[in-house]
Amino acid sequence: GGSDSAGDSGSGDDSGITTVADGTLTVCSDVPYPPFEDFDETSESGFKGFDIDIVQAIADGLELELAVKDSSFDALQSGQALNAAQCDIAASAMTITEERKAALDFSDGYYDSQQSLLVAEGSDIASIDDLDGVKVGVQQGTTGKAYAEENATGAELVSFPSDAEMFQAIKAGQVDALLQDLPVNINHQDQGGFSVVETYSTDESYGLAMKKGNTALVEAVNEQLSEMRDDGTYDEIYNSYFAT
Ligand code: ARG
To answer: Which of 52, 76, 182, 184 could pair with 116 in a Cys bridge, judged by C-beta atoms 3.0 to 4.6 Å apart?
Structure first.
């Protein structure tokens, strides 16, 4: 609509952005995907994680309230949720890819990631060459699934809608390995009983996804990201999850 339509955020900032709910930055995320997104009953938004802190800082900078909605990753990466105006931003550890750029607009990259293989401690599987005939859990619609399809051709891929279901399946012995983003497999390793045995240098960069053509919001988000990098907020958030 026009710049003064009822849909305007009207929140006092002069960025000219429009949000799906007045005065609110509505963010869709596939939760849990720790350390990027997780449930947290003690926090105001009901959620926590690296992505949640990043979008909270963006909402603060734009003088908007933050609302987070748990969503299916596949609906986020395909553009479906954003096109249906369910949210303004998808913040879901989502890799910027050429294919997705056809359906979505992305912010500048805000986190670098790789793929990896997780197995139970004591497993015979030591590398991607050991996966012939092995059941490998992957998440629907992800770059990890695409990587496995291309590089673990002898494996029996089992596709799950969420990481929570994948992790449950490896715990139950229904799959023998999980191929997915390194930080999330490391997070599982940290719970005990599982090891990351191999890392794949896919050089992925996570971006915040927005509805295709929402240039005003993309620009406002990039401006917030760059301010966050300049004033130390980004490092503060980064170090609270990925301290070295
Ligand atoms: N980075 C991977 C991708 O973009 C996986 C992201 C999964 N995110 C999630 N919240 N489940 O395909």
So the answer is: 182
